[in-house]
């Protein structure tokens, strides 16, 4: 990529600041549209990058309710949280929506560790205890 002369760059910046479109600035300066768009992005560093998404069906209050129920141990997984929040709200949400909300708040899906079965030694000890205190 060729370096742009500072004079050309300043000229492009002034045209962008005046509100001209990238296409007009391209035709006036001879720079590519890509270069002009990069210059425009550098000028608007603090500009908020909004994505065109649908608003969430879960309000912040609903999200806090779900998180509280899971962290307190009343609910174990996202499906249970979905049933819980659908029983409260009129607009129903899917379990995927709840999963996305939990991921945004730092939760991860983890499989519970299985406990080992009792060893023969443990079974004998339990049997002897039961026989000893049977009566």
Order of helices and strands: HHHHHHH
What value does the Rg take, in angstroms?
31 Å
Dominant shape: elongated
How many strands, which pairing sense, and closed or not: the largest β-sheet? none
Number of helices: 7
Low-confidence stretches: none
Q: Strand content of the residues, in percent? A: under 5%
Alpha-beta classification: mainly alpha
Would you count the extended β strands for me?
0
Percentage of helical residues?
A: 55-70%
How far apart, in Å, are the first and last alpha carbons? 91 Å
Look at the structure and give the mean pLDDT. Answer: 88
Which helices and strands occur, and which strands form pairs?
Elements: H1 6-17, H2 22-29, H3 33-43, H4 60-71, H5 78-88, H6 95-104, H7 120-132
Helix pairs in contact: 1-2, 1-3, 4-5, 5-6
Q: Would you give an account of this structure?
A:
The chain is mainly α and 135 residues long. Among the domains are: 6-43; 60-104. 57% of the residues lie in helices and 0% in strands. It has seven helices and no strands. The protein has helices at 6-17, 22-29, 33-43, 60-71, 78-88, 95-104, 120-132. α1 packs across α3 (33-43), α4 (60-71) packs across α5 (78-88) and α5 (78-88) packs across α6. The chain is elongated and about 100 Å long. The model has no long low-confidence stretch (mean pLDDT 88).
What's the short version?
The chain is mainly alpha-helical. It has helices spanning 6-17, 22-29, 33-43, 60-71, 78-88, 95-104, 120-132. The longest helix is centred in the C-terminal third of the chain and has 13 residues, at 120-132.
């Amino acid at each position: 990529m060729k370096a742009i002369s500072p004079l050309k760059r300043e000229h492009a910046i002034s045209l962008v600041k005046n509100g001209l479109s990238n296409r007009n600035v391209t035709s006036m300066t001879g720079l590519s549209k890509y270069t002009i768009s990069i210059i425009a992005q550098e000028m608007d560093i603090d500009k908020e990058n909004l994505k065109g998404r649908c608003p969430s069906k879960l309000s912040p209050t609903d999200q806090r309710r779900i998180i509280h129920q899971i962290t307190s141990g009343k609910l174990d997984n996202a499906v249970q949280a979905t049933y819980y929040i659908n029983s409260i709200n009129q607009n129903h949400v899917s379990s995927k929506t709840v999963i996305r909300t939990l991921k945004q708040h730092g939760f991860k899906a983890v499989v519970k560790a299985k406990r080992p079965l009792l060893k023969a030694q443990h079974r004998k000890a339990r049997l002897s205890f039961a026989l000893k205190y049977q009566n």
